[in-house]
Amino acid sequence: MARIYPFRAWRYNPSAIRLNDVRLDDLVTQPAEAISPSMQQACYQRSPYNLIRIVLGLPELFDAGRGESVYTRAARDFGGWREQGVLVQETVPCIFAYSQRFQVPGTEAIAGGEAILERRSFIALGKLDDAVEQVVFRAEPAQPAPAAEQLALLSATHAQFGPILMLYSDPARSVEKTLFESGGPLQAPPLEAGPADAEATDEFGVVHRLWRISDPAAIRLLTAAMDDKKLILAAGASRYDAALAYAQEHTPAEPQNPTESRSMQWHPPFPAAAAMMTFVNMDSDGLAILPIHRVVHSLPKFDSVAFAVAAQAYFTVEALAEDDAAGYLQRLNSQPGTAFIAVTRAGALLLHAQPEAATAVAHLPERQRQLDLSLLHTIVLERLLGLHAAEPGTNLRLLRDASEATDQVRRHEADVAFLTRPVSLEQLREVAFAGDVLPQNSTEFFPNPISGMAIYALD
Hints:
This protein has helices at about 15-20, 35-45, 50-55, 65, 70-85, 145-155, 175-180, 190-195, 215-225, 235-250, 260-265, 305-310, 325-335, 355-360, 370-385, 400-410, 425-435, and strands at about 5, 10, 85-90, 95-105, 115-125, 135-140, 160, 165-170, 200, 205-215, 230-235, 275-280, 290, 295, 315-320, 340-345, 345-355, 395-400, 415-420, 445, 455. The chain is α+β, with helices and mostly antiparallel strands. Strands 1, 4, 5, 6, 8, 9, 10, 11 and 12 form a nine-stranded mixed beta sheet that branches. The chain has a six-stranded antiparallel beta sheet with strand order 15-17-16-19-14-18, sandwiched between helices. A two-stranded antiparallel ribbon has the order 2-3. The two termini are about 25 Å apart.
């Protein structure tokens, strides 16, 4: 079901990196959807060849008058870097073993390094599938505006610069054993055969390592192992939608000869028919999902006491002793059932769902009714506060950092912060494979696959 292909990736030239006395750390970047304005500025300052200049360029003052844009500059830079040898292309099609070593944000270091996790995956091209084919299932709803921006970049550069995060199920861990473990089918696993072909450390201290896999026998094993898999689109949905739209625009008028297609199993039917993806086994260790907290601000009038009274129609409301964000989250994580915490200027409240809450979300699919965020969005944000929870903007911020969320309330920069638990992997799996989606902005998979370790050029 999941069709994958090796590809001749473009990568930063190790010789050019050494010659210019820079590190790969200074050249790669987070995916565009995860880059804040401050991160964008920092990446610009690291190197004139940092990938940020292509994936999320800064507009310039006289762009309109000169017929320029961030997209025309991205295309020019990408072409120039290839001509200058800053980027070089693999001589043969490859699949890449990919390791990310990290500590989950917000956790305390444990003696002996036990808090350090490793997520093992691989990067390859994956065939683009629409919903009808029932191969790729979504974790969250599509977002048209970011997809349009990504389509403009793809149309200008004819390239994909960061892999889309895809989850698959493999309890036997056959793919990981093939790539990473001694005694696996390859007998010479990359992690034990020598240093990585590329290594970089990002802003969050995540160590990214990449190994080339060009052996035809190994690639055949990997493609066969993935052939019966269904996929969950976990991160990078806007880039997936852009790639799908681009493929529909560039489908060849003449279909490929079936005989030729069968003999060319190393290539997609046409270049735009596939996208660069990172494939992660959801049954292995190292898959961390972080909560995304909701901060409500600039309401015309917000009264903490009135809010607590209104919430009692749907929740058991318990006032909590003064504490920090870590203490609140510890209390929240010990709660059974559906719950979240509201931090107001008057104090913090633990909201635990009563039977009346189920009635208020009876219109939602059954699996969604069990989610903390479904009740938070539908009952609290929309019904009690009158906000459109799926559209962060005027009155709603999304924050990963619970301490910053609570501090904004205490600094009177927000009216109330809602601290939430992460969606569990089992909840995500059940909702996605049922053909449903989680509430918008439910999940943040940490860490992101970094952009710039491998690049897929369509021409």
